[in-house]
Amino acid sequence: MARYQPRPLVRSSTPEGGVAAADRALLLLTAFRHGDGALPLGELVGRTGLVKSTALRLLASLQHFGLVQRRGDGYAIGPEISRLAATHAASFTLAEVVMPVLRRLSEHTQESATFYVRQGDRRLCLYRVDSPQPLRDHGRAGDLFPLDRGSGGRVLMAFDGAEGAIYDQVRRDKVVFLMADRVPDLAGASAPVFEAGGALVGAVTLIMPVTRCRPEHATLVRNAAVDLTRELGGSVSLFD
Q1: CA–CA dist 32, 28 (Å, integer)
Q2: Number of Cβ atoms within 10 Å of the Cβ of 22
Q3: pLDDT tens for residues 194-230?
Q4: CA 47-30-26 angle, 5° bins
Q5: At what angle do helices 151-158 and 165-173 cross, to 10 degrees?
Q6: pTM
Q7: Could you report the per-residue pLDDT of 23-48, keeping only the tens digit for each?
Q8: 3-class DSSP state for residue 22?
Q9: What angle do CA 91, 96, 101 make, to 5 degrees?
Q10: CA distance 87 to 51
C-alpha cells in the first residue's frame, strides 16, 4: 500500500486561550514522522523553526515526562507515547470520529453520506447516513459493492496501486466525482481518508441522483476527508 509522507512542519501561532510554551513543546513532538528514529537537535530545530536554546529546554521537559528520550546524539519518541497510544486505542472507535462528519455532510447537502473500506476484492459500506429526500439510493451499512465501479471503489483502488488514468487523477486530486459509474442515474463523489503514517483508512463518499449532483459536492467531500484525516492523526498536507 502506498505511503504518503508529511511535509516539514511550519511554526504556528498560539491559539486563543493556549499556552505558548505548551504549543512549542507539542510542536516538537509532532515533528517526529512515521519511520523516524533518533533525530539530531539540528533536524528538530529545522523542522519546527524553534530557536536551539528553546528547543533544548523544551526537550528537557519532554524527557522528564517520558515523551522523548535521548538516543545517541539525538532524540527519539519516548515510552510514555506508547502508553498514551494504547490508552487511546482502548477507548477509540472509528464510528465516533466518522459518524459526526457523515452527519454534517448529509445535513449540509441533503444527500446520503457513506464511508467505505476495502474488504478483500470488494468494498464494504462501513457507515452511512441516509438522505432525507425520498428519491435516493437504498444502500445500507454492511452492504458490499464492487471495487472497480463507483467513486468509493475507485478511491480505494487508487491508493492500493491501481493503474490507469482515473486512478492517477484520484491520486493527484484526492477526490473523484463520477456519474453512472456503478448504477445508471446515480452520481458519487469520494475522497481518501488517511491515518498517521500516511496509510489509507477508507473513502468518504456522497451519493445522489445525477439530477441533483453539483460541482460543489466534490469540494465538500474533499473537505470532509481532510477533517477525518486530521481527526485520525493523519497529515492534511497529503491533500496539498
Answers
A1: 7
A2: 12
A3: 998 899 999 999 999 999 999 999 999 999 999 999 9
A4: 105
A5: 80
A6: 0.69
A7: 999 999 989 987 888 999 999 999 99
A8: helix
A9: 150
A10: 33
